[in-house]
C-alpha cells in the first residue's frame, strides 16, 4: 500500500505547495530581521575604545555616532590628550573648542579645563586663555587630585598670566606654596615675584588695601613698597631687608625671590674700585670723552652714600694694546673695568677662559669669538635697532617689506639681524637694495619699487610686437612698507623719491641713524611720516640729567649725546651686573633704552619710537602684542 506520508513525496503538487508556503514565510521573516538589524545599526553606539582617530575631524565624526553624550565627550578628551602627548596642540585645540565639548558633563569639566589650559599656554592663544579664566578662581586647582594639584596650579597661573591677569596668577601660586609642601619654594617665589612686578600700580594698591591672609598681605606689601618712584638700587636693598625684619615668619622672608636676594646684597657686592678705560686721544677721542663725561655726570648725580664708597680711575687706552693694559689693571686694586670702546680691543680678551677682574666692554664681540667668563658687553648696537624694527612691523601685521640698506660691514650686520628676526616672525623682505652714498638714488629707488622691472617689461612687449605701446609705470603691489636705513642727508633724498615712483602711500620705518638728534624742522620736512626708533636720551620729553648736563657740558645732543647717554648707562649697569645676568626679568630703564641682559652677558636695548611731523619728531605710543592695551612711554629713565 502506498505510503500516506506526504513528506516522502516531494514531487507531488501538494508537497510542492506546502514547501513554497514555508519558503515564503522564511524569506519574509529574514527580511524583517534584516530590516530591524539595519534600523538598530543606525542607532547603535560605535565601539570608541577600538577606534584610533588620526585627525580631529575623524575623532569628531566617530564621537558624533555615539548615543551617550558623556561617553562621546570622554572619548574626545582622551584623543585630545593623545594629541598633546604628540605635541600637536593645534589638533587638541580643534577638539577642545568643538561644539561637542562646549558643555562637558560635570565629571569631565576639570579634565577639559586642564587640557585647555595646557594647549592655550603652549600655543600662546591669549583669546582662548581669556575665555578659560572666566571659569577660574585662584583656588580652582584645589579641586584636582593630589597628584595633579601642582600641575593644575602651574597651568592655571600661566593661563592667568597669558590672559593679562598677573595678580590672580600670583595668588594661585601663593595658595600652591601653602597647599603643597613638596614644591620648590625658590622657583615658586621667583615666579610669584615676576608676576607681581607686572601688576599695574593701581590694581596692586587696591589689592593691598583689601587683601586677606598673612601670606598674601606680606607679598602685596613687599611689592607695593618697591613701587615708590625714583628709589635707587641701594634704597631698594634697604626696603627688602626692612621687610624681612618685619615679616620674619613669612615664607618669602626666609626664601626671598632670587631677584630680591641680589638687590638686597648689591650694596655689599657693588664694585668699590672702578677703572674707566677709554680712548682719550686719536680718532676716537671725541667718542671716548663723551662716554667719560656721561659716566661721571651720572656718578655725581647719584646717592652721596654710593659715591662715598666708590673710587673711579680713568685710563687712556689710545697708546697701548688692551690685552696688555688689562693684565696691568687686573694686578692692581680694581673691582671692575669699563671699556674698551674698540671692537678689536675687546676681541683681544676672547682668548682668555675667564677674566680675573670683570669687564664691561663698550662694544660687542664678533659672533665667531668666544665669550670669557666675567665679560659683559654693552653698546649702541645696530642689531638691537634692526630687531626692534622687525618686531614693530610684526605687531602692526606688516608681513612684506622692501628694504634699503647702505653697503659696508655695518649694513651687513643690520641686514643679518633684521632678516633673522623677520624670519622668526614669519614676515619677509621682498627685495633688499644695498647702495653707496654716491649712487644714483633715482635708479636705486626705481629698482626697489619695481619700476625698472615694469619699464623693462614694456620695452620687451614693444620689441615683440614691433610697435610702440603706451606705457604707464606701476610699482610692485605686494609691498606693505619700506625699511629705510640711511643717514639724514641721504634719507631726505630717498623719501621724496618714494612718492615720485608711486610708493608715497607705503609707511617707512628707520633706525636712529636717520635723525641727527637735534630738531631741524626746515631740513627734516622731507622726512615727514617716517617712523623711527631712537634712545630715550633723544626722544624722552623730560630728562633731568640731560637738562643739567646741557648747561655745563658740550656734546650732550646729537650722536655725541647718544654716546654721553651710553656713558651714563654704563654707570648704572656697573651696580647691577650680577642682577641683570642672573635674573632674566630684571631691567634698567636707562638713557639709551630699557636695558636687559642675556645669560651670556650681552646687554640689549629697547628704545622709543617717534614719527616726523612738520619736520619734528613726535613720540609714538608704545605698541603692545595683540590684545594688550597701548600706553605712551614717556617716563624719565631712573634707577
Short description:
This protein has 28 helices and 15 strands. The chain has 639 residues and is an alpha/beta fold.
Could you explain the architecture of this structure?
With 639 residues, the chain is of the alpha/beta class. The protein has 28 helices and 15 strands. A seven-stranded mixed beta sheet has the order 7-6-8-9-10-14-15, with helices on both faces. It has a five-stranded parallel beta sheet with strand order 2-1-3-4-5, sandwiched between helices. Strand 9 (508-510), helix 24 and strand 10 (531-534) form a beta-alpha-beta unit. Helix 5 (109-122) packs antiparallel against helix 6 and helix 21 (441-448) crosses helix 23. The longest helix has 31 residues, at 13-43. It is globular, with a radius of gyration of 35 Å. The termini are far apart. Mean pLDDT is 86; it is low at 1-44 and 626-639.
Amino acid at each position: 500500500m502506498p505510503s500516506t506520508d506526504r513528506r516522502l513525496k516531494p514531487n507531488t503538487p501538494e508537497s510542492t505547495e506546502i514547501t513554497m508556503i514555508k519558503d515564503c514565510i522564511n524569506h519574509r521573516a529574514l527580511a524583517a530581521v534584516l530590516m530591524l538589524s539595519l534600523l538598530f545599526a543606525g542607532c547603535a553606539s560605535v565601539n570608541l575604545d577600538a577606534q584610533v582617530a588620526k585627525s580631529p575631524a575623524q575623532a569628531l565624526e566617530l564621537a558624533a555616532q555615539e548615543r551617550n553624550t558623556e561617553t562621546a565627550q570622554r572619548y574626545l578628551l582622551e584623543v585630545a590628550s593623545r594629541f598633546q602627548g604628540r605635541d600637536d596642540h593645534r589638533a587638541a585645540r580643534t577638539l577642545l573648542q568643538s561644539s561637542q565639548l562646549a558643555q562637558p558633563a560635570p565629571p569631565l569639566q576639570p579634565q577639559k579645563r586642564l587640557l585647555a589650559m595646557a594647549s592655550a599656554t603652549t600655543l600662546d592663544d591669549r583669546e582662548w586663555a581669556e575665555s578659560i579664566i572666566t571659569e577660574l578662581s585662584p583656588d580652582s586647582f584645589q579641586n584636582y587630585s593630589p597628584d595633579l594639584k601642582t600641575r593644575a596650579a602651574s597651568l592655571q597661573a600661566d593661563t592667568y598670566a597669558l590672559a593679562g591677569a598677573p595678580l590672580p596668577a600670583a595668588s594661585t601660586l601663593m595658595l600652591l606654596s601653602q597647599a603643597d609642601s613638596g614644591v620648590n619654594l625658590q622657583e615658586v617665589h621667583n615666579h610669584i615675584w615676576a608676576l607681581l612686578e607686572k601688576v599695574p600700580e593701581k590694581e596692586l594698591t587696591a589689592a593691598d588695601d583689601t587683601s586677606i591672609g598673612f601670606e598674601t598681605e606680606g607679598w602685596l606689601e613687599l611689592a607695593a613698597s618697591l613701587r615708590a618712584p625714583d628709589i635707587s638700587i641701594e634704597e631698594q636693598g634697604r626696603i627688602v631687608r626692612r621687610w624681612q625684619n618685619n615679616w620674619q615668619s613669612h615664607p618669602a622672608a626666609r626664601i626671598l625671590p632670587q631677584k630680591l636676594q641680589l638687590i638686597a646684597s648689591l650694596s655689599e657686592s657693588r664694585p668699590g674700585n672702578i677703572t674707566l678705560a677709554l680712548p682719550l686721544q686719536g680718532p676716537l677721542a671725541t667718542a671716548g670723552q663723551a662716554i667719560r663725561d656721561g659716566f661721571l655726570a651720572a656718578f655725581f648725580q647719584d646717592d652721596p652714600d654710593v659715591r662715598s664708597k666708590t673710587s673711579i680711575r680713568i685710563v687712556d687706552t689710545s697708546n697701548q694694546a688692551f690685552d696688555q693694559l688689562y693684565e696691568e689693571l687686573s694686578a692692581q686694586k680694581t673691582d671692575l673695568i669699563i671699556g674698551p670702546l674698540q671692537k678689536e680691543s675687546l676681541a683681544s680678551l676672547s682668548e682668555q677662559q675667564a677674566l680675573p677682574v670683570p669687564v664691561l666692554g663698550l662694544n660687542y664681540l664678533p659672533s665667531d669669538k668666544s665669550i670669557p667668563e666675567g665679560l659683559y658687553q654693552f653698546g649702541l648696537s645696530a642689531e638691537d635697532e634692526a630687531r626692534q624694527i622687525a618686531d614693530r612691523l610684526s605687531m602692526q601685521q606688516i608681513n612684506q617689506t622692501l628694504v634699503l640698506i647702505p653697503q659696508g660691514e655695518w649694513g651687513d650686520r643690520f641686514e643679518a639681524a633684521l632678516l633673522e628676526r623677520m624670519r622668526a616672525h614669519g614676515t619677509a623682505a621682498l627685495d633688499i637694495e644695498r647702495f653707496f652714498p654716491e649712487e644714483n638714488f633715482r635708479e636705486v629707488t626705481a629698482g626697489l619699487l619695481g619700476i625698472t622691472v615694469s619699464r623693462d617689461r614694456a620695452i620687451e612687449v614693444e620689441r615683440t610686437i614691433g610697435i610702440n605701446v603706451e606705457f604707464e609705470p606701476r610699482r610692485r603691489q605686494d609691498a606693505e612698507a619700506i625699511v629705510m636705513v640711511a643717514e639724514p642727508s641721504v634719507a631726505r633724498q630717498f623719501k621724496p623719491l618714494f612718492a615720485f615712483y608711486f610708493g608715497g602711500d607705503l609707511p617707512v620705518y628707520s633706525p636712529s641713524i636717520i635723525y641727527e638728534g637735534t630738531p631741524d624742522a626746515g631740513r627734516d620736512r622731507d622726512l615727514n611720516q617716517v617712523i623711527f626708533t631712537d634712545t630715550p636720551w633723544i626722544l624722552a620729553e623730560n630728562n633731568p640729567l640731560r637738562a643739567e648736563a646741557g648747561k655745563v657740558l658740550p656734546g650732550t645732543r646729537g650722536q655725541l649725546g647718544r654716546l654721553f647717554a651710553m656713558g651714563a648707562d654704563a654707570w648704572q649697569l656697573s651696580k647691577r651686573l650680577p642682577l641683570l645676568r642672573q635674573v632674566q626679568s630684571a631691567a634698567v630703564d636707562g638713557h639709551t633704552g630699557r636695558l636687559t641682559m642675556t645669560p651670556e652677558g650681552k646687554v640689549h636695548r629697547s628704545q622709543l619710537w617717534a614719527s616726523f611731523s612738520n619736520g619734528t619728531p613726535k613720540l609714538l605710543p608704545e605698541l603692545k602684542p595683540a590684545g594688550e592695551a597701548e600706553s605712551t612711554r614717556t617716563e624719565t629713565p631712573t634707577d
